[in-house]
């Protein structure tokens, strides 16, 4: 696995940072989560399977000492807090990178480490709004996709930064701070949308563009059984096959004229057959027409099934690691147990020189914590 041998110390927090640890562990890294209190790691199974858990009181000097010892054996640190929190704990990058100059200190927050909004709370919709991209989604009322910015602009952009820092460390031998924030991350992911403003693709009002339902050949249509088909027949050769698949006359359904009336004709036609019937028709045509699959049925589609793109754990559907590497692919940890709070205290602390007696005293004095009985 490509990240085998890399040790990651993840400080527990909301989902975008645990999702980074989830990606790293799926591709071979050893991820240990530092939990400051009794948090149910089972809430989000996908992002916590395969990780170790230690419970540490970071407000106690001995707890801070434990982290500093762990840092000497750590390659990547994942930090989810608002700016300044780690510095107040005595665990900021300047301190920890003195302990380990090869450390890749990764911090992810909503608005950045400085600036007017840097100390503000926020969620996905807020970050997407501040990027300007939310204004492009929805109909008249802005309405964005769920958790788009936090995981695409946050977690994935952060993983990209970590990978680049790892490559640089092979050259220089030095670590660095990966300072990521969700607002700038999702803006970067949306670079193409900024560049396409005032163009034929995205230059008109909302709902009047090529890619937001403004044309009849790039839209979704309801079928006879109340399900949906997605149409993306932009290129003329695809559009021709699309109209043929519907059994309509392309001379009467011109691609670049009468979009509203064409949409009505196409909508009526789609309601004549079920989604399964239309899928069978278009599976034999390269027309950019596909069924809109419900999230609980995607693993049953023949294409996804042929690639083993999804797995199930306790009736929960989960995607497998992506992308697929042909020599060192990622392996989903979804079928591994979820660590209970502080489950790996002894294992982790012994690895950095603590004796069992010392560990027992740390537990007795409230410097480390553990859940006495597993709920999973």
Automatic annotation (TrEMBL):
GO CC terms: mitochondrion
One of the record's GO molecular function terms: transferase activity
Keyword field: Transferase
InterPro entries, alphabetized: CoA-transferase_III, CoA-Trfase_fam_III, CoA-Trfase_III_dom3_sf, CoA-Trfase_III_dom_1_sf
GO biological process, one term: bile acid metabolic process
SUPFAM superfamilies: CoA-transferase family III (CaiB/BaiF)
Pfam families registered for this protein in UniProt: CoA_transf_3
Gene3D superfamilies in the cross-refs: Crotonobetainyl-coa:carnitine coa-transferase, domain 1, formyl-coa transferase, domain 3
UniProt family annotation: Belongs to the CoA-transferase III family.
PANTHER family: ALPHA-METHYLACYL-COA RACEMASE, SUCCINYL-COA--D-CITRAMALATE COA-TRANSFERASE
Protein name per the record: CoA-transferase family III domain,CoA-transferase family III
């Amino acid at each position: 696995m490509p990240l085998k041998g890399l040790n990651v110390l993840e400080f527990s927090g909301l989902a975008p940072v645990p999702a980074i640890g989830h990606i790293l562990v799926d591709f071979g890294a050893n991820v240990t989560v530092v939990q400051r209190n009794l948090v149910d790691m089972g809430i989000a199974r996908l992002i916590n399977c395969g990780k170790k858990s230690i419970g540490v009181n970071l407000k106690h000097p001995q707890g801070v000492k434990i982290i500093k010892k762990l840092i000497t054996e750590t390659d990547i640190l994942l930090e989810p807090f608002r700016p300044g929190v780690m510095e107040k704990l005595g665990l900021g990058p300047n301190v920890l990178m003195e302990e380990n100059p090869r450390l890749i200190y990764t911090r992810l927050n909503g608005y950045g480490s400085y600036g007017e909004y840097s100390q503000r709370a926020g969620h996905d919709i807020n970050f997407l709004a501040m990027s300007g991209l939310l204004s492009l989604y929805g109909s008249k009322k802005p309405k964005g996709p769920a958790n788009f910015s936090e995981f695409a602009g946050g977690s994935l952009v952060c993983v990209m930064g970590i990978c680049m820092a790892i490559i640089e460390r092979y050259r220089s031998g030095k670590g660095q701070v990966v300072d990521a924030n969700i607002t700038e991350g999702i803006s970067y992911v949306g670079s193409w949308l900024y560049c396409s403003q005032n163009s034929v693709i995205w230059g008109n009002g909302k709902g009047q563009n090529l890619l937001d339902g403004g044309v009849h050949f790039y839209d979704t249509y309801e079928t006879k059984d109340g399900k949906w088909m997605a149409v993306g027949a932009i290129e003329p050769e695809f559009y021709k096959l699309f109209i043929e698949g519907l059994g309509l006359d392309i001379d009467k359904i011109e691609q670049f004229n009468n979009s509203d009336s064409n949409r009505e004709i196409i909508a009526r036609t789609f309601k004549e057959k079920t989604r399964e019937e239309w899928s069978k028709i278009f599976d034999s045509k390269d027309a950019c027409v596909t069924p809109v699959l419900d999230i609980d049925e995607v693993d049953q589609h023949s294409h996804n099934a042929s690639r083993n793109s999804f797995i199930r754990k306790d009736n929960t559907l989960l995607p497998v690691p992506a992308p697929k590497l042909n020599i060192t692919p990622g392996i989903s940890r979804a079928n591994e147990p979820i660590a209970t709070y502080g489950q790996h205290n002894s294992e982790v602390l012994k690895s950095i020189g603590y004796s069992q007696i010392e560990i027992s005293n740390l537990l007795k004095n409230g410097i480390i914590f553990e859940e006495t009985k597993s709920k999973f």
